[in-house]
Specification:
Number of domains: 1
Strand order of the largest sheet: 1-2
Membrane topology: Multi-pass membrane protein
Largest sheet: 2 strands, antiparallel
Keywords: Amino-acid transport, Cell membrane, Membrane, Transmembrane, Transmembrane helix, Transport
CATH superfamily: MetI-like
Oligomer: single chain
CATH architecture: Orthogonal Bundle
Family: Belongs to the binding-protein-dependent transport system permease family. HisMQ subfamily.
GO molecular function, one term: transmembrane transporter activity
Subcellular location: Cell membrane
Strand content: under 5%
Length: 260
């Protein structure tokens, strides 16, 4: 690798790298948010208790079958193939001329939604059954139980998996170059084609991808720690207070009695 060429490529093509990285982040952020919303909706629907008989049971079975087909199809096929089918297929079959960025966001969203729906369903199933029974005992229906009791816990539990999906989407947007989306990989390929320095050009792209994914990972871990709250709490009457390291030391010196 030539250091001189590396500097020259960055100085001459910096704006193109930045634009490509911006498009990559834009598609990844919007696609992950929309995909997570799709996953939450599907996860709630797929965990609705099935009645023993009646038209509601038939309706739920049909809905679950359709959702299962959607999930299995988008989890079982590569995103690059989905992009080709959705973008070019819709143009050939229905005459729909989709905007490339809109098509990219749509593809990333429905692909993420298929994965997130299973993550959400697993998170809901992991919640103790007693919480569902307690909520139903005080008169809550399934939707109320989900939004008031279950989903706040599920969202916290699936945050690492959601962050992982976000990181995957940042990297997987590179396949969208097949429909000429000008994300980071597409821009890098254009730069490398102009100067014929493929190693140096893609090395720069590699570093940019790493910076984006590393930064996102650290931000998500910070959010997780904030949601977890402090490690130490002590109860005083009917109030819960945070126990700081100074409080712990003072309590130890006073024989275990907290002083506030």
């Amino acid at each position: 690798m030539s250091f001189e060429w590396l500097v020259k490529i960055i100085s001459n093509n910096g704006p193109m790298f930045i634009r490509g990285a911006g498009v990559t982040l834009y598609i990844s952020i919007i696609g992950t948010i929309l995909g997570s919303m799709i996953g939450l909706l599907i996860g709630v629907i797929r965990t609705i208790p099935m009645p023993e008989r009646g038209s509601k049971r038939v309706f739920l079975k049909v809905i679950n079958a359709i959702l299962s087909v959607y999930i299995e199809f988008f989890r079982g096929t590569p995103m690059i193939v989905q992009a080709m089918v959705i973008y070019y297929g819709s143009a050939l079959a229905f005459g729909v001329d989709m905007n490339r960025i809109v098509a990219a966001i749509f593809i990333v969203s429905i692909n993420t939604g298929a994965y997130m729906s299973e993550i959400v369903r697993g998170g809901i199933v992991s919640i103790d059954r007693g919480q569902f029974e307690a909520a139903h005992a005080i008169g809550m229906n399934h939707i109320q139980t989900m939004f008031n009791v279950v989903l706040p816990q599920v969202i916290r539990n699936i945050l690492p998996a959601t962050g992982n999906e976000f990181v995957i989407n940042i990297k997987d947007t590179s396949v969208l170059n097949v429909i000429s989306v000008t994300e980071l990989y597409f821009q890098t390929k254009s730069i490398a084609g102009n100067n014929f320095r493929y190693f140096e050009s893609f090395f720069v792209a590699c570093v940019i991808y790493f910076i984006m994914t590393f930064t996102v990972t650290r931000i998500l871990r910070f959010i997780e720690r904030k949601l977890d709250g402090p490690d130490n709490y002590i109860m005083i009457g009917n109030q819960m207070q945070v126990e700081t390291p100074e409080d712990m030391l003072r309590r130890t010196k006073n024989g275990g009695v907290g002083q506030f």
